[in-house]
Amino acid sequence: MTWNVYLAGEIHTDWRDEIAAGVRDAGLPVAFSSPVTNHPASDDCGVAILGAEQNKFWHDNKGANINAIRTRNALEKADVVVVRFGDKYKQWNAAFDAGYAAALGKSLIVMHGPDHQHALKEVDAAALAVTETPAQVVDILRYVIDGTLDGYPD
Fold first, then answer.
1. Residue that wins the pLDDT comparison between 49 and 12
2. Residue ranges with strand state E in 29-134
3. What digits encode the pLDDT tens for the residues 55-80?
4. Where in the sequence is the domain holding 16, given as residue range(s)?
5. pLDDT tens profile 65-118
6. Phi and psi of 105, rounded to 5°?
C-alpha cells in the first residue's frame, strides 16, 4: 500500500522537502500532496483565471474557492495529514485544514514550535501527534508504516 500524506500549512520554509527526503531515505511507500506553495499564484489564481475584481474580498474569495478544490480533494484522499504552523505568519488556512482533516476523521500530525502551544491548544488536542521537527514526522511515518523504531531491534 502507498500511503497518501497531505502536507498542509506554512509555505515559507523547506520543511516539506525535509520530510520528503527523510521518507525517501527510509524507503517508505508514501505519495505526497500539498497546497500550491507559490504564494502569489495561490493568492491570485481566482482573478488570473476568472477575471479581475475591484473589491479585495472578492479577489480573495475567488482564489480561496479555487484553492479549496485542490485542498478538499487532497484532504479527503489522505491517509495522514501533516499541518505545519510556522513562526513568521499566522496561518489561518493551516488551522482550517487541521480542523477539516479532524472533521473527516483523518490521522492528523501537527508541527509547530513551543511558542505556539497555547494558541494551538485546540488544534493540538485534535491531533494524534504534535511534533516540532520534520525528522519527528518522518520517525512517526516510519513507525506507523513499517513498524520500526530507532534503537529497537526488528
1. 49
2. 30-33, 80-84, 107-111, 129-131
3. 999 999 999 999 999 999 999 999 99
4. 3-36+79-146
5. 999 999 999 999 999 999 999 987 778 889 999 999 999 999 999 999 999 999
6. 75, 25
Joined together, the cell numbers standing for residue 142 give: 516510519
Is 16 within a domain? Answer: yes
Q: What is the dihedral of CA 114, 9, 54, 41, to 10 degrees?
A: 130
What phi and psi values does residue 33 have, to the nearest 5 degrees?
A: -140, 165
What's the CATH code of the domain at 126? 3.40.50.450
Give me 72's grid cell: 478538499
What is the pLDDT at residue 80?
Answer: 98
Task: Give the separation between CA 8 and CA 64, rounded to whole angstroms.
Answer: 15
Q: Looking at the 3D structure of the chain, how many domains does it have? A: 1
Scan for cell 499564484, then name that residue: 41
Q: Residue 147 region, left (φ>0) first, then alpha (ψ -120 to 50), else beta?
A: left
Q: Position of cell 513562526?
A: 87
